[in-house]
Amino acid sequence: MTDEATITGNVDERLAARGMGELADKMGMVITEMSADRAVGSIPVEGNRQPVGLLHGGAYVVLAESLGSMAANVHAGEGRYAVGIELNASHTRSATSGTVTGVCTAIHLGNTLTTHEIVLTDDQGRRCSTVRITNLVREAR
Predict the structure, then answer these.
(1) N- to C-terminal Cα distance for the chain?
(2) Smallest Cα–Cα separation from 32: which of 12, 15, 7?
(3) Closest by Cα among 17, 23, 40 to 99
(4) Which residue of 31, 105, 107, 121 has the fewest C-beta atoms within 10 A of its own C-beta?
(5) Please, are residues 84 and 65 in contact by the beta-carbon 8 Å criterion?
(6) pLDDT digits over 103-112, tens only?
(7) Helix (H, G, I), strand (E, B) or coil at 12
(8) Contact 74/15 with Cβ under 8 angstroms?
(9) What is the sign of the dihedral through the CA atoms of 26, 100, 45 and 87?
C-alpha cells in the first residue's frame, strides 16, 4: 500500500491542488481520470482487507464515494460545491489481492442534483461492487 493518494492523468486542476484527503492517502487511492461525466481510480487490496483476507466492503464504498463526489464537484464548477446526500452499494464478489478499479459514470448532471454509478472491478475485470451516489450541488459561502 502506498502512503499517499495519487492524482495522475486527466484530472481537474482544482482537485489536484486540493488533494483527496487523509482517508484516500491511507488507502493508497490513485485517481487516473476525472471529469463530470467519467472518473477512474483504484486502490490496492493489500492494506485494505478485513481480518478474513477480503477487501473491506467499506473500502469499495470509500473509493466509489470519492470518485462520485469529485466528479460532482467538477460538474458544480467555480463558486459551487457538491455534497453527497445518498449512497447505495451492492457487493457481488470479493477481491483478495491485487487492485480494485472504480469507473464512475454520470447518470444525471443537473443544476442542483447529480447522480453517478460506480462499477468496481478486480484485476480480472470481474464486477465486485456497484455503487450509486447522489450529490446536492450548493453555492459556496
Answers:
(1) 37
(2) 7
(3) 40
(4) 107
(5) yes
(6) 999 999 999 9
(7) coil
(8) yes
(9) positive
